[in-house]
């Protein structure tokens, strides 16, 4: 049975591909058309026993239904994205916790991106070293060591940033 299915599909598919491609190209963008064409051919393969003697009109119906499903999927994704954007705005729209302290922003920017990301995972996302290890696909021990080193680098960078900005130490209890 499997060999006859394959033979039937291989006999019919070449006659369907170009007409279906043109059918879909007139109705949607090229990327969606390609995706829907692939889905349509998959349905044709799965239901090869149901293919009528003249399969093109039937395949047009399958393609039309697949395209409608793809369009519904896009609308669902857009609605979901809009809902998520309202509840949890994109990073660009939401101020980072560090923006409250300009020196911290400058110090983080001066670090290697890997060190800054490690610190963000720890401070902003409040992940443990073991959880950070999972995110970064490293061992928990490596995450702990890197976190310690990154914190030290951040402290040094904050000292440099504060010193460069002309901050003075406390003069309390000192005579001029």
From TrEMBL:
Domain RNA polymerase sigma factor 70 region 4 type: where?
104-154
> Can you say what this protein is called?
RNA polymerase sigma factor 70 region 4 type 2 domain-containing protein
Highest taxon of the lineage: Bacteria
Which family would the database say this protein is a member of?
A: Belongs to the sigma-70 factor family. ECF subfamily.
SUPFAM superfamilies per UniProt: Sigma2 domain of RNA polymerase sigma factors, Sigma3 and sigma4 domains of RNA polymerase sigma factors
Chain segments carrying region Disordered: 157-176
Q: Does the keyword Ion transport apply?
A: no
- Organism, as annotated: Nocardioides endophyticus
Q: Provide an example Pfam family for this protein.
A: Sigma70_r4_2
Q: Which UniProt keywords apply?
A: Sigma factor, Transcription, Transcription regulation
Q: Where are the transmembrane segments?
A: none
């Amino acid at each position: 049975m499997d060999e006859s299915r394959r033979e039937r599909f291989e006999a019919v598919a070449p006659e369907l591909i170009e007409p279906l491609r043109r059918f879909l190209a007139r109705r949607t963008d090229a990327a969606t058309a390609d995706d829907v064409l692939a889905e349509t051919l998959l349905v044709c393969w799965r239901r090869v026993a149901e293919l009528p003697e003249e399969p093109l009109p039937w395949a047009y119906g399958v393609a039309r239904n697949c395209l409608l499903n793809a369009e519904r999927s896009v609308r669902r994704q857009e609605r979901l994205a809009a809902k998520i954007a309202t509840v949890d705005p994109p990073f660009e729209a939401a101020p980072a916790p560090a923006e409250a302290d300009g020196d911290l922003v400058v110090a983080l920017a001066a670090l290697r991106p890997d060190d800054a990301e490690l610190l963000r995972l720890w401070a902003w996302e409040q992940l443990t070293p073991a959880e950070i290890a999972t995110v970064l696909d490293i061992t928990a021990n490596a995450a702990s060591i890197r976190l310690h080193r990154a914190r030290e680098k951040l402290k040094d960078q904050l000292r440099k940033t504060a010193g460069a900005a002309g901050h003075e130490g406390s003069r309390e209890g000192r005579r001029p």
